[in-house]
Amino acid sequence: MADNQIWHAASLGRSKRKKLLAGGYLLLALALGAAPLLLLFHGPLSVEANALVALDSYGRTVSNGWGTADVGGAWTILDGSPSWSVMPGTGAVAAPANAQERGILESVNVQDVDLLTQVVLPRCASNCDAYVLGRVSGGSTPNYYRIGAVQNTSSGSVRIRAQRSDGTLLASDVGTSIPAADGVVLWLRVQMQGINPTALRARRHTFKYTNFQASVLSGSTPTPTPTPTSTPTATPTPTSTPTPTPGTYPPTGPQTNHYFYDFQAGAMYVYDIDNNFVPVYSVNIPQTSDGVEGVVASPTDGMLYVAHGSNGGSPGRGSLLKYNLLTNTVVWDRLYSFDIDSPGITPDGKRIYMPGGENSGSSLWWVIDTSTGNPITSITAGQGPHNTIVSLNGQHVYMAGMQSQSDYVADTATNTVTGQIGPLAGGGGGRPFTINGTETYAFTTSAGNFGFQVSDIQTGKVIYTVPVIGFTNVGSQSIPDHGISLSPDEREIYLIDSANDYAHVFDVTGLPTVAPKQVADIKLSLPISGSESSCPYNCQREGWMLHGSSGRYVFVGDTGDVIDTATRTLAANIATLRNSRKYLEIDWHGGQTSFTTNRYGLGYVTGPSPNPTPTPTPTPTPTPTPTPTPTPTPTPTPMPTPTPTPTATPTPTPTPSPTTAPSLIAQDTFVRANQSPWGIASDGQTWGAEAGTSSAFSIVNNSGTVSNGNASYSAILGPTATNAEVFLSARMSAFSNTNMGALLRYQDGNDWYKAYINGASLVVQKRVAGAYTNLASSAFTATANTPYSLRFRVVGTTLAARVWATSTTEPTTWTLTVSDASFASGFCGLRVLDQNGAIVTYTSFIATTVTTLSGAFVPWSPGGSWWMLTAAGLLVATLLVRSARRRLTSSRPE
Question: Which residue in 423, 433, 513, 663 could disulfide with 405, CB within 3.0 to 4.6 Å?
Fold first, then answer.
């Protein structure tokens, strides 16, 4: 790759020399699969830490080995030094197939380290990996731990993996939002601290994260900055784990009882929602000890169905258990030849739609007769069948596959697919989703989007991509938003944030004309990290969200928290819910089941569920009161349908979200199949202006190109904005009456602001009613086929721009600053003058909101997640990269 890469490690704490296994050397290693590899490393880059211990910018020429680093002494090459060389700005390793290459900075011996490096990751059949290694010992045959990014031709996205040097996995792979591709460029950062045990964090992202704030590795995720809008609440005391106390369960009286059902491997726990969430019943169900994947219930006959066993593998061994809630007995337990996952059930309780397993490689949802458990037929939909919702009227089933870019809709009368929703951000990925009662809107989450998306079900198109404002995705999960719930009255969305251990609340009453608005952020009592206990597989805590039938409470999986939606405070903590994300509410009346939710927090307006519960107002026993928040202004929102009517839910006056951190407007990495024109960006939004219609725009080898043109062209992405910034990285094949640049406050082809380079100058220009005016310019020599990065920002009436060679460090001051009041708002995008056979190649486009013209860049978090591991072993830091099929060159976004 043609950009500068830095090796940069720094002590987070004790930087004294230790004995081996308490400290160790920094190591760079390359292990090859079935093809040779030439990998290039570059630099410089700064890392926030206490003391610099190693740095290499490769500013030298060495033909055999890597010579001496800028900081950290000489490189010792363990495997075939002729394969290692340095040219100014580049460290190269040409490793043969089925081999590994390793190099050590032997003079660097530390315990607690912070390492940031950029890699170009190849994609091949197997062993295409880039690792940071830890606490290396053992001379020419070292032992170590390795943590890094992996992909192969069968993977949809890059994954994070941790292993010992012998290949033993330290933890299950963690997925990322970066699409798998040959030559994908990513930044990898690892922190390690302590011994017995050692704590480790790893994060990956697709561009340089310049202001990352390092934190002590205590096992908790970093506190988000800035301070969220909600007043911190007191941590409720968890209830004790229930013991089997059948007593009066199931209830037989004339009153309505609202019960919360929580499921773990081999057990079911029941809590009284109306009485301070006290445990009322629990029972062992040993048949489900192989792992619960999903639960549904039918209030028409009091039957509960538990999907358990394998969600992927060969041969399939998924099972479905039928349980009689009225008699507390197992009716049957069916073992299938296919895998299972989280099912849906029709309102009459007669059919279950069972997904064939997220890890199965299948695309089938099985239709099962609930009277016998026999499969009737199947539906082919998204690959990796995972999450399933049957509509309130029972006419449609919604299906989300883990490897599918879209969700599918099928007609339950014919069991045929009738529509799709998407394509969704980050390729979709079958993550938690929900729908409203009239099947107008779908609310979806995905691994590639920190926030959620709103889609029009009738057209299948995404209408809003909603970011989380004031927080960044620095959590430990492959998806920080693994939980979303629509309130029964359809006024609010609750979204989980496992990266920062928060629940975020969004007002969705303005749909479709007004985008959802973030109105509250609620701190959870326990971190969503580590693993669930009593869990056979898929044990990583990810979270889940579910509104109760009244709308009064939201239950948060993998923390145990119960949120009071009236006060937006924590009302209780349910101990077993700390280790589960499979749960639902079942209501009883007169000794019979009368209503049930499913696992997904649905809207119930104008779409009644079967046999809805009457509308009593729960009167729970008073609970310990957390720290009070300011008294909100009540806005009663009674349910307009015969479904469970929520209590009047006061809506606190929202405190504006912090504005010191940017929010994403639009982004494109251009990593997708070759096509013309540019189509759908990596963030799920569609390119507009000429980028959406002109054949001059195309995707070629994971880059956005403009070629074969003879005019000026515009490309816009995302909604309009007032104060915003565009960052781009691109190169031009020739500067001959040509230019390339960024757009802000774009109105149409005749009205916009633009910052561009033309080979001789950086120019800030405006066009008003078709007339061009250069507002400012500064000499800047740009050469053909050299990657450049450009940042263009507007705040109020002030415009600022700077540009630099991508292989160098970004300037700390603006090159041009000018004032103009022609446009107050508009779209963000790109504009190029392409003629004389010139080709422009874009590798990155990012548009964010901004609040200041300060030269310091405060970046939007690009979906890079933190990954937390505690190992009994002792770790340090290194890098391992495997296999490629050809020489890889690339330019980094920044």
Answer: 423
H or E element: which one contains 26?
Answer: strand 24-31
Centre a 10 Å sphere on the Cβ of residue 357 and count the other Cβ atoms it contains: 26
Euclidean distance between CA atoms 291 and 310, whole angstroms: 8
Flag the least confident range among 139-143, 717-721, 758-762: 139-143
Cis status, amide bond into 375, omega within 30 of 0 = no
Cα–Cα distance between 225 and 180 in angstroms, integer? 31
Q: Tokens 């900075």 identify what position?
A: 105
Angle at 308 between CA 306 and CA 310, to 5 degrees: 155
Q: What is the structure's pLDDT at 832?
A: 95
For residues 418 and 354, give the distance between their C-alpha atoms in angstroms, rounded to a whole number: 18
- For 523-577, give the DSSP string: E-SS-S-SB-SS-SS--B---EEEE-TTSSEEEEETT-EEEETTTTEEEEE-GGG
Question: Phi and psi (nearest 5°) for 335?
Answer: -100, 130
> What are the pLDDT digits (tens) for 66-112?
888 877 788 888 776 567 777 655 667 765 666 677 777 777 776 67
Give yes or no for a contact between 877 and 25, defined as CB atoms under 8 angstroms apart: no
Q: What is the pTM of this model?
A: 0.47
> Phi and psi for 318 in degrees, rounded to 5?
-75, 155
Tokens matching residue 557: 């999986």
pLDDT value of position 259: 96
Rounded distance between C-alpha atoms, residue 403 and residue 406, angstroms: 9
As a 3-state breakdown, the chain gives helix, strand, coil percent values, each rounded to 5, of 0, 45, 55
Closest CA to 892 of 185, 397, 372, 99: 185
Look at 697 and 207; give whichever has higher pLDDT: 697
Q: Is 701 helix (H, G, I), strand (E, B) or coil?
A: coil
Going by pLDDT thresholds of 50, 70 and 90, the confidence category of residue 4 is very low
Q: Which pLDDT score, from 0 to 100, does residue 196 have?
A: 58
* 560, burial (CB in 10 Å: exposed 0-12, middle 13-18, buried 19+): buried
Residue owning tokens 């099985």: 366
Using omega within 30 degrees of 0 as the cis cutoff, is the peptide bond preceding 608 cis? no
Q: What is d(CA 593, CA 601) in angstroms, rounded to the nearest whole number?
A: 19
From CA 672, how far away is CA 178, in angstroms rounded? 11
Q: What is the edge-to-edge ordering of all strands in the sheet holding 364-369? A: 344-345, 351-355, 364-369, 375-380
pLDDT at 860 exceeding the cut of 50: no
Tell me: pLDDT of 237 over 70.
Answer: no
Structure tokens at 724: 């915003």
The number of angstroms, rounded, from the C-alpha of 573 to the middle of its chain's C-alpha atoms is 26
Residue 614's pLDDT is 36
3-state secondary structure of 894: coil
> What stretches of 374-416 show up as alpha helix (H) in DSSP?
none
DSSP output for 74-143: BEEE-S-GGGEEEETTEEEEEEPTT-EEEEEEEEEEESSEEEEEEEEEP--SS-EEEEEEEEEESTTS-E
Does residue 505 have a pLDDT over 90?
A: yes
> Under a CB-based contact definition with an 8 Å cutoff, are residues 645 and 639 in contact?
yes
Gap between the Cα atoms of 708 and 695, Å rounded: 9
Give the H/E segment covering residue 145.
Answer: strand 143-151
Banded pLDDT at 500 (limits 50, 70, 90): very high
Phi, psi of 489 (to 5 degrees): -85, 0
Helix, strand, or coil (residue 582):
coil
Residue 672: DSSP 8-state: S
**572-587: string of b/e by CB count within 10 Å (b at 16+)?**
bbbbbbbbbbbbbbbb
Query: In the predicted model, is pLDDT for residue 577 greater than 90?
Result: yes
d(CA 682, CA 164): 34
* Residues 6+ away with beta carbon under 8 Å from 422: 405, 406, 407, 428, 444, 455, 460, 462, 684
Name the token pair of 888: 């890889």
Q: Which of 378, 417, 386, 380 is nearest to 402 (CA)?
A: 386
